[in-house]
Structure formats: structure tokens, C-alpha cells
Amino acid sequence: MTQQFDVVMIGGGPGGYIAAIRAAQLGLSVACVDAWTNARNKPSLGGTCLNVGCIPSKALLESSENYERALHHFAEHGVRIGEVSLDLGQMLSRKDRIVDQLTGGVAYLFKKNKVTSFHGHGSFAGRTEGGFAITVRQGDTETTLQARHVVVATGSVPRPIPAAPVDNQLILDNEGALAMTAVPKRLGIIGAGVIGLEMGSVWKRLGSEVTLLEAMETFLPPVDEQVSKEAFKCLTKDQGLAIHLGAKVTRVERKAKALKVHYTDAQGEKSLEVDRLIVAVGRAPNTEGLNLASVGVQVDARGFVEVDEHCRTATPGIWAVGDVVRGPMLAHKAEEEGVAVAEQIAGQHSHVDFNTIPWVIYTAPEIAWVGQTEQQLKAAGTAYRAGSFPFAANGRAKALGETRGFVKILACKNTDRILGVHIIGPFASELITEAVVALEFRASSEDIARIVHAHPALSEVFHEAALAVDGRTLNM
Ligand code: FAD
Ligand code: NAD
Predict the structure, then answer these.
(1) Closest Cα to atom 21, ligand 1: which residue?
(2) Taking the model in full, what pTM does it have?
(3) Whose CA is nearest to atom 11 of ligand 1?
(4) Engineered SS bond to 428: which of 50, 72, 348, 423, CB 3.0-4.6 Å?
(5) Ligand 1 center to residue 44 CA distance, Å?
């Protein structure tokens, strides 16, 4: 029997599940179709983010940082704990428990909001009177749904490279990188982007020798240049990651128990022997088996579902959000698009401002930014003033023992409106929210300079950076 809904979400990651909850809150009848099956062969909502992305990676980053603190930093605080040893099994099962709690939480939220959940692969089966037919396939079972609106939220998958085919034994994608059951002595990573740096940090802290091979000559091109320079120094000199820029991997040779990675750089041909290799060269939109053509939905040259600024495809009634469409591949961007689409389907107005989406890289120190970089302002010929302040001059950072990095604020020279904020330092992921609020409320650097910030707090560095825009820091 065909089941009828106002809206069907295909995909239960942050884009789809948040859209489903918001649409249900607005009184629509909603179904969400999701195909994710976890390592125990159980349906698991939450997509890449909850299962093999944001959440498990942050769990391991936190655990590995604790291990490193216990090994190298507790003594400095006068805390003597004797011999420190690693229980990797416990670390991994803690991560898995967090994932289970949160994916189970999405199932609970669906029940609470009366979202009907279907487990299986969804695809378009064509148009119907007043909407679309969607087939949900699970093994040999097929169910047909009908809906007035469909939201495609099928996310992304790791981008493969022919030189290093992933088997998740020796050559790993993000899923394998989060589940190694022993610490490899030598770990290679292709791609020094966000995943490469976060996963490299985890395994380096746990004891691996980590080498990253990055094709570009520039380190972290989207990041403000002053921040990327500081990050390169911190990650290589302090953290001990070996990062080779301009390294093009040509092939990977499988030896008995190891891998030989052949690459070329400015000096010619080179090779690197490793025990495990992570491939983290970006992600590709996932539209496999959706049968988009049957409903007139196009993908662009890079495979992203084509949408306008309101996430509408060319077919009225079909929308797409998250990693499967243009824009940054970030969970909070997917969620905001999901909310905006649900509200539009319910007849409201909503939109997502890409200029105020924050980025965070969870290395140590953390890197976070929002708005424009100094290089973007220069290229656009925008007149600006910059103000920076180092964490080294902040009491709370000293108490934490995390004094690397700075906050930098870029403000329009004529109006003083804040155009971009760039942070490298402790808890940058939390501090960036003040910058997002400032950009959303079109604050000037003087507004921030006049706001009382608690003492002693890391946010005082943000305050001082705002004062620095006008050349009047108080604590330096
Ligand atoms: P996804 O989360 O990929 O969800 C798509 C869902 O759709 C999946 O469950 C998939 O199985 C399902 N699906 C696909 N096709 C079908 C179909 N035909 N039928 C039924 N179901 C289908 N972002 C951040 O903002 N912060 C972070 O710290 C962060 N860390 C990350 C760490 C790693 C290692 C990785 C890989 C990613 C990370 N990301 C992070 C990115 C973030 O995970 C994605 O941007 C986010 O998950 C995108 O959400 P989405 O809903 O578009 O897609
Ligand atoms: P990425 O785009 O961040 O980095 C990929 C890197 O690989 C780039 O520096 C690129 O130049 C390099 N590269 C590409 N081809 C290469 C090749 N053949 N050899 C060597 N280097 C090559 O992609 P990612 O690290 O795979 O992460 C995918 C996406 O997931 C990110 O863009 C981000 O949107 C999301 N993510 C976000 C977070 C976060 O928000 N903290 C964390 C992890 C992932």
C-alpha cells in the first residue's frame, strides 16, 4: 500500500533529520528515508556527521588530547600520576557509545515529533498526481511513498583517487581512520585538509609518526594567511606532524605488511613507507541510485544537485540541502538549509546567509573563522583595518597553559563594520560564536570594544582584538 505524506526527506543526516523535525513542528506530515547501517548491521540515523564524521572524530580528538596532557602536561601543573598507558579499546568504545547515544537520540526525536522513519535506499519512481512517488528498497522489500514535497539530503561520500584505492584495512577513508584497533607506527595521510589534520592530530598524539602529503603548494588555502602560517608552525614544530606541500601521489605499492607511497614534488620522485594510509582528499556529493532524471532534477558538472539560493531544484516541489548541494560541506550549514526548506514548504520565508557560517578545524590549537579573510578583502579592493591580540597576553590562557595563537578582527575602514574574524587558539570553536553574532548584528569593532567581557576569560582576547582595530589595546 502506498503511504502519503506532505514531505519526504531522502537522507537522515543533519540536513534531512533537522528538516524533518522542523517540518513536523510546523504541522506537516513527514517521513524520513535513510539507508545508513552501522558496523553492527543496525540502522543508525544521523548520517555521516553522527556515525563517521563530526561526532566520533571529536570524541577521539578529546580522548587523545587527554592522553597527551596526562603524558606531557600534568607534571607541569604539579599533578603526578605515575605511569600513563593507553587503552585504545576503551577509547574506541567510548567513542562508539557517544555515537550510539546520539544516533539513538535522533530516533527518539523522530518519535517525539511524529516523523515516520523508513530504513532503506530511497529513489524517485516518477511523478504522481500532486506530487512524487518514492521507492524505499531494503533487501528484497520495496515500499512506495507519495509526497507533495521531497527534500534530497543524501550527503556526500569520500572522494576516491585511483593511486590509492581504499580497502579500509591498510588504506583507509574517514570511516577506517576512526576505527583503527592498534596505533600504527608510521601513518601516512594523503591530503592536509580538515580531515587529514584532525585525524593526523589524533593518531600523532596516540604515538604514530604522521606524514601528510598535500598536493597544493599552499597550506589551508581557504584560511586567513596569517592564521595558516601560525597553524603550520604549531602543527609541525609543536605537534610534530610532518606536512609535505606540493606532493603529488602517483601510486601506492602494497608490501607484505606495509605500504610504499610514491609521490613527486619540486625535487623529483620520492617515496614514503607507512603501515597505514588515510586518504582524505575531499568529499563528493552522493546522488547514487536516486533516479533524479525521472523527475527532471539536474546535477552540475561536479555532481552536486543544482539548486537556487533557496535550495529549490528546477522541479517545483523538489528541494535539496546539505553536502549534496553547493556551499561548504558542514553539518551546521546542512541543518540551517534543512530548517529554511521546511519553513518554506510550510509557507514561511527563510534563508541561509553563507557569509555568517563559521568554520572550525579541531586541531590543537583550534582554528576558527567567519566572514572574509585578509586576502579576500585585498583582492576585492576593500579598505579595512585589522586588529590582533595574542592569547599569550591573556590570564585565562596562561592558567590553561594554552597560550599559542591570536584573535584577528578585520573591520571596514570607512564604517568600522566587522567583515571577518579569524582565531587560532584554545576553544576557538566556542569563541567564534561571538564573532558570528557580531556579523549577524552588523556590529562594528567599537561595539565589541565597548561590551563588558568577563575576567579572566579567553573572550577577553576577542575584546582586546577589537580594541586593537583602533590601536588602543589595554593589556599589551
Ligand atoms: P550526511 O550526513 O552525509 O547524511 C546523508 C544521509 O543520507 C546518510 O545517512 C546516507 O546514508 C543517507 N542516504 C544517502 N543516499 C540515500 C538514499 N538514496 N536513500 C536513503 N538514504 C540515503 N562538519 C562540521 O560541521 N563539523 C565537523 O566537526 C565535521 N567533522 C567531520 C569529520 C569527518 C571525518 C567527516 C567525514 C565530516 C565531517 N563534517 C563536519 C562534515 C559533516 O559530516 C557533513 O557536512 C554533514 O554530515 C552533511 O550532512 P548531510 O545531511 O548533508 O549529509
Ligand atoms: P578538504 O577539502 O578539507 O581537504 C582535502 C585536501 O586534500 C586539500 O588540501 C586538497 O588540496 C588535498 N588533495 C586533493 N587531492 C589530492 C591528492 N591527489 N593528493 C594530495 N592531496 C590532495 O577535504 P577533507 O579533509 O577530505 O574533508 C572533506 C570535508 O569534510 C571538508 O571540506 C569539510 O567540509 C568537512 N569536514 C569538516 C570538518 C570540520 O568542520 N571540523 C572536519 C572534517 C571534515
Answers:
(1) 34
(2) 0.97
(3) 36
(4) 423
(5) 12
Ligand nearest to the CA of 32: 1
Pocket flag, ligand 1, residue 13 (CB < 6 Å): yes
Nearest ligand by distance to the CA of 196: 2
Q: In the chain, which residues have pLDDT < 50?
A: none
Residue closest via CA to ligand 2's atom 34 equals 329
Distance separating alpha carbons of residues 474 and 476, to the nearest angstrom: 6
Cα of 206 to ligand 1 centre, how many Å?
Answer: 26
Instruction: Measure 230 CA to ligand 1 centroid, in angstroms.
Output: 30
Identify the pLDDT of residue 256: 85
Q: Domains (ranges, CATH) in the chain?
A: 3-158+284-352 (3.50.50.60), 171-281 (3.50.50.60), 356-469 (3.30.390.30)
Atom of ligand 1 nearest to the CA of 324: 52
Ligand 1, atom nearest to 33 Cα: 20
- Residue 123 CA, closest ligand 1 atom number: 18
The answer to whether the CB of 280 is under 6 A from ligand 2 is yes
Is any atom of ligand 2 closer than 6 Å to the C-beta of 281? yes
Q: Given the CA of residue 247, which atom of ligand 2 is nearest to it?
A: 20
What is the amino acid identity at position 104?
Answer: G
Looking at residue 425, its pLDDT comes to: 98
3-state secondary structure labels for all residues of the chain: CCEEEEEEEECCCHHHHHHHHHHHHCCCCEEEEECCECCCCCECCCHHHHHHCHHHHHHHHHHHHHHHHHHHHCHHHCCCCCCCCCCHHHHHHHHHHHHHHHHHHHHHHHHHHCEEEEECEEEEEEEECCEEEEEEEECCEEEEEEEEEEEECCCEEECCCCCCCCCCCCEECHHHHCCCCCCCCEEEEECCCHHHHHHHHHHHHCCCEEEEECCCCCCCCCCCHHHHHHHHHHHHHHCCCEEECCCEEEEEEECCCCEEEEEEECCEEEEEEECEEEECCCEEECCCCCCHHHHCCCECCCCCECCCCCCECCCCCEEECHHHCCCCCCHHHHHHHHHHHHHHHCCCCCCCCHHHCCEEECCCCEEEEEECCHHHHHHHCCCEEEEEEEHHHCHHHHHHCCCCCEEEEEEECCCCEEEEEEEEECCHHHHHHHHHHHHHCCCEHHHHHCCCCCCCCCHHHHHHHHHHHCCCCCCC
pLDDT of residue 197: 98
